[in-house]
Design a protein that fits this description.
The complex is a heterodimer of chains A (207) and B (350).
Chain A lengths: L3 H4 L20 H13 L2 H18 L23 E3 L15 H5 L5 E7 L5 E8 L9 H5 L5 E3 L16 H4 L22 H4 L8
Antiparallel strand pairs in A: 1-4, 2-3
Chain B lengths: L8 H5 L7 H33 L15 H11 L10 H20 L7 E2 L11 E2 L9 H11 L2 H9 L3 H32 L4 H7 L8 H4 L1 H14 L11 H4 L9 H26 L10 H21 L5 H28 L1
Antiparallel strand pairs in B: 1-2
Helix pairs in contact in B: 2-12, 2-13, 3-12, 4-5, 4-6, 4-12, 6-7, 7-10, 7-14, 10-12, 10-14, 12-13
Classes of the chains: A alpha+beta (207), B mainly alpha (350).
Chain lengths: 207, 350
């Protein structure tokens, strides 16, 4: 898409319809005729019909706007950035986090704290991982920078709790092992785009 | 079409049982109880209908479909603290809502509400008492009702002036403006049907239109019907003319300083007035109640239609300015009403 339509500053020439506004009558007879014309034009009944139509639509055609919120919820975008989730590998069930520490580095409000060590197999293991949600601004950088799609933003936006520490430990955010089959792949920040294959360029080995 | 006139009311009511004082008492209690309840239910209906017209659900959580909302509101109104502002005229401030509610119910005394019946003999003490459909069957019923409803405007007027509040003063001033505007139109518009029927009694109006839909006075007096409807909207402070307490302009107008049950009495009075105007319009122009067939259901349907029309108009139309209302009533509606009366007179003489 080009930028032409944004660069055109000649406001008032495109996509505007001039309304046919009548002039205010000056003579008494003109005023009288205007009153009579407006009275018998039945525009008041058009207004009545509009509200009645909306009532019929709402009651019989399922166009009621109200969402009974705690019982019904509107679907939210996959790019919505709510409380973080830590995902697991689908095959082994092991958590995806490799302890690289990129999220801790990029976090602009310094709310991610992590500690790692080598386990008995000399693999890196996350021994401590918390997010201080009193500081987090939900910018999404951690999810974007994560190379393993391990930390993502979930859809859980109701974050009222009795303690500030709720949701913020690694175990709280990690997908429960018995719900591994319900784990959704993440579509939001940092996820692989649907057309990722088309965007891959061949490494120019010919140089 | 000839117009049936009953110059002698006694010949018509001869076959009815005797109306005793006990019957009138019972009728008064029934009217008070049921119309108060219906007024409460009217607030629920209004909220529901307005919500549907804006594609909302309205009250839903108190009881099934929010039906018990009325009871919740009632408990709230009854148990609220009764506050009288510091600089208010205490006596008048406390009396004003009573005027509105009382005149609304006094007006209902001369209007036929609900069918007449005789209390069964097996009930102790009151058994066999005949309860009339009209508490007080005056031969000047229409004049009485309109007069009472007009007197009811003393409520807002005194309330607005007594409460030491600028919004209240504006509300009271607008009450005066509104009263001066519509009252002439109400009287003149209903004068033409009165000329046709030749009586001021609601029973005579009902009998004059007894022959079915084609006998309804609305076909002979469409202009008077429209004028009366407009004036009735002004009389009950409904939306195109709700100048007295228009929230967007004068906070709550005459009711600004009121809370609790005193405010509730204004509300009950307003809804009772809506019912009264609906009944008058149904009886004078739309044939009233018919004793045969589905009987009293007809007038309930007609009153229900007018009640719904008031809510419908509130959802659809903006309201007018006070000066526009005066302009409309004095310069447009009153001349039309006078012309209507004159033409009716000429047609009757010829």
């Amino acid at each position: 898409m080009g930028l032409e339509q944004f660069k055109n500053r000649n406001v008032g020439q495109q996509n505007y319809v001039m309304l046919d506004l009548e002039h205010t009558p000056e003579t008494g007879m003109g005023k009288f005729r205007q009153v009579v014309r407006r009275t018998f034009k039945a525009e008041l009944f058009v207004g009545l019909w509009v509200t009645m139509r909306e009532m019929i639509n709402a009651l019989f055609k399922g166009q009621m706007h109200t969402v009974k919120y705690p019982f019904e919820k509107l679907p939210i975008s996959p790019r919505y950035r709510a409380i973080h989730e830590m995902l697991r590998l689908l095959e082994s069930g092991h958590y995806r986090c490799i302890g690289c520490g990129l999220c801790e580095k990029i976090c602009i409000s310094n709310c991610i704290t992590m500690d790692t060590r080598y386990d008995e197999n000399q693999r890196k293991e996350v021994s401590e991982y918390t997010i201080n949600f009193g500081r987090c601004i939900f910018c999404g950088y951690c999810a974007e920078v994560c190379p393993e799609l391990a930390i993502v933003h979930g859809p859980r936006y109701e974050t009222a709790s009795e303690q500030r520490a709720s949701f913020s430990l690694f175990e709280d955010m990690l997908t429960p092992i018995d719900k591994l089959n319900l784990q959704q792949e993440y579509d939001g920040f940092g996820a692989v785009t649907p057309n990722a294959d088309e965007n891959i360029k061949k490494t120019p080995l010919a140089y | 079409m000839e117009v049936v006139t009953y110059t002698n009311v006694e010949t018509f009511v001869q076959h009815l049982p005797e109306v005793t004082a006990a019957g009138v008492w019972i009728k008064a209690i029934i009217i008070l109880a049921i119309i108060s309840a219906v007024a409460g239910f009217g607030t629920y209906l209004e909220r529901k209908v307005l919500a549907f017209m804006q594609r909302r659900l309205g009250p839903m959580h108190v009881g099934p479909y929010g039906l018990l909302q009325i009871i919740a509101d009632g408990i709230k109104l009854f148990t609220k603290e009764d506050i009288v502002p510091q600089n208010a005229n205490r006596l008048i401030f406390m009396v004003a809502p009573v005027i509105t509610a009382a005149t609304a119910f006094i007006a209902l005394a001369a209007v036929p509400v609900f069918p007449d019946f005789t209390i069964p003999e097996w009930i102790p003490v009151l058994g066999g008492t005949f309860v009339p459909s009209i508490a007080a069957d005056l031969n000047i019923g229409i004049l009485f009702v309109l007069g009472m409803m007009a007197a009811g405007l003393y409520g807002p007027l005194l309330a607005g002036m007594a409460q030491a509040n600028k919004w209240g003063i504006i509300g009271a001033a607008r009450t005066a403006v509104q009263f001066l505007s519509y009252e002439v139109v109400t009287g003149l518009s209903i004068l033409a049907p009165i000329m046709l029927v030749g009586s001021l009694s609601f029973v005579d109006f009902n009998e004059a239109q007894a022959g079915g839909i084609s006998h309804w006075l609305i076909w002979q007096q469409p202009v008077a019907f429209v004028l009366f409807l407009i004036a009735g909207f002004a009389e009950t402070n409904r939306t195109p003319f709700d100048l007295l307490e228009h929230e967007a302009e004068v906070v709550s107008g005459y009711a600004t300083e009121y809370s609790g049950m005193r405010w509730g009495m204004f509300f009950i009075g307003e809804y009772a007035n809506m019912i009264t105007i609906s009944i008058i319009a149904a009886i004078v122009f739309l044939g009233g109640y018919s004793e045969e067939g589905i009987g009293w259901l007809t007038i309930i349907l007609k009153v229900g239609f007018f009640f719904f029309l008031m809510l419908w108009v509130r959802a659809a139309w903006p309201h007018v300015r006070p000066d526009q209302l005066m302009w409309l009533c004095w310069k447009v509606l009153m001349p039309i009403a006078v012309i209507n009366v004159v033409i009716t007179g000429i047609v009757m003489m010829v």
